[in-house]
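Input structure tokens:
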């Protein structure tokens, strides 16, 4: 499969081959060889025939152009697969011809091959997610108590910590990785239903053939055909789409924090990033992640729409699913790779984060000030005073606490003003304000520092 220049330029993991044409053809051949071997083990076909079919699959040359032409003309992928193998058998082992592709159908071969390719794609996605998870946890530990301005509706809210933001993103990444690992055994299964999903040709030996074939290919055996019941398959894809949403959120936050006017984050230097403006330092990896995640909701919607597959074999919906499936996984993998690279080289400007807090002249501590003054002036009165004085603090560039002390002195007297000064000093201390976020970050890290399940947990077994 040819990948466009634009697609490659937006994919920092472009060297990773996922769902390529050559991989497709090899996976289809693996199915045919594995099926014959499993049927021979169950006594359904002669062992000599299985050996001959395996040898023919190894020798057969599936021509991409010919495969496409035959599939386009007939609507059946299996013809372009089976005919080249038949040609080899006809020349070297004609007695094995009746046993090739026996008891099975095109969709069995394609779905099983698709499961093999998705298993490889899932492993690549999980590798990137685990790397991103580790980089985010490192940032979280380093910046657990780094004060920064939280934003609510894109406006200044309260003080949080950059470490907590990183830990929260790591938790989302970890949840998706865990869900993908949990769903894999129910989705990445051998397809072996025969013409209409009832396994009529293999009868009582069907379960044994399925188990043996699953073990041969490194997939799972679910015990039933799933030709037009795609729920388990789709759940895996939808979790990948949810993961893309979490990645998009992280890329959006970091790109906003990388704006010059904000300047709290920067990606690692990589030389010039603008053809016309040499001074620019674009957040390239965040840009790539945003671009890669944009198509995912549409792909997820298309895949869900493809579930309305009529009767025992679909007319069009399954074929459309085949077209939308691979791009989903490529986009998620590329987005995760981009953000891993961004996280590993991320530069955090803690001074700029503090400067943004300071620029608000303590208005960011309005809720804490109201709590601090509640016992001296009453909560309602304190909140009303803050609503009135906060704009003045910003306009006059005076600390909110000073204006509040004056208000207390005017309304409650000097003694209460001295008490107010003490409680407001605590309420407007950024290091004190960040303690809650630091504690949340530490608690989250304790759960996250348990290593994720290793890839070996994806070893197939009978479901």
């Amino acid at each position: 499969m040819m990948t466009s220049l634009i697609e490659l330029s937006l994919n920092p993991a472009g060297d990773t081959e996922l769902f390529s044409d050559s991989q497709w053809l090899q996976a289809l051949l693996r199915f045919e060889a594995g099926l014959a071997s499993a049927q021979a083990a169950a006594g359904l076909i002669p062992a000599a025939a299985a050996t001959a079919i395996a040898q023919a699959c190894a020798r057969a040359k599936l021509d991409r152009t010919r495969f496409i032409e035959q599939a386009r003309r007939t609507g059946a992928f299996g013809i372009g697969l089976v005919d080249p193998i038949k040609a080899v058998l006809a020349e070297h082992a004609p007695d094995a011809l009746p046993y090739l592709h026996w008891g099975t159908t095109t969709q069995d071969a394609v779905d099983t091959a698709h499961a093999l390719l998705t298993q490889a794609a899932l492993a690549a996605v999980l590798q990137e997610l685990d790397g991103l998870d580790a980089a985010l946890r490192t940032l979280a530990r380093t910046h657990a108590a780094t004060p920064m301005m939280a934003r609510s509706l894109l406006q200044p809210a309260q003080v949080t910590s950059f470490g907590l933001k990183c830990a929260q993103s790591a938790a989302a990444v970890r949840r998706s990785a865990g869900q993908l690992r949990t769903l894999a055994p129910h989705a990445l299964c051998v397809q072996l239903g025969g013409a209409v999903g009832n396994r009529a040709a293999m009868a009582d030996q069907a379960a044994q053939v399925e188990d043996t074939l699953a073990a041969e290919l490194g997939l799972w055996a679910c015990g039933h055909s799933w030709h037009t019941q795609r729920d388990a398959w789709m759940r895996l894809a939808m979790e990948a789409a949810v993961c893309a949403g979490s990645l998009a959120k992280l890329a959006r936050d970091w790109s906003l924090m990388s704006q010059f006017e904000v300047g709290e984050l920067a990606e690692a230097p990589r030389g010039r990033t603008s053809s016309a403006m040499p001074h620019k330092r674009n957040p390239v990896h965040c840009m790539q992640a945003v671009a890669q995640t944009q198509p995912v909701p549409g792909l997820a919607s298309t895949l869900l729409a493809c579930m309305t597959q009529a009767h025992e074999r679909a007319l069009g919906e399954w074929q459309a699913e085949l077209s939308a499936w691979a791009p989903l996984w490529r986009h998620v993998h590329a987005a995760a790779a981009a953000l891993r690279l961004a996280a590993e080289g991320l530069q955090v400007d803690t001074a700029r984060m503090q400067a943004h807090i300071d620029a608000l002249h303590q208005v960011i501590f309005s809720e804490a000030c109201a709590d601090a003054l509640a016992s001296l002036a009453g909560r309602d009165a304190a909140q009303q005073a803050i609503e009135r004085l906060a704009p003045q603090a910003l306009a006059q560039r005076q600390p909110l606490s000073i204006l509040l002390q004056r208000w207390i002195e005017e309304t409650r007297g000097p003694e209460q003003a001295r008490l107010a000064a003490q409680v407001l000093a605590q309420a407007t201390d950024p290091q004190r304000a960040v303690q809650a976020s630091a504690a949340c970050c530490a608690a989250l890290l304790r759960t996250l520092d348990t290593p994720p399940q290793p890839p070996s947990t994806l070893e197939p077994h009978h479901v």
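The mean pLDDT is 93. The longest strand covers residues 155-161.
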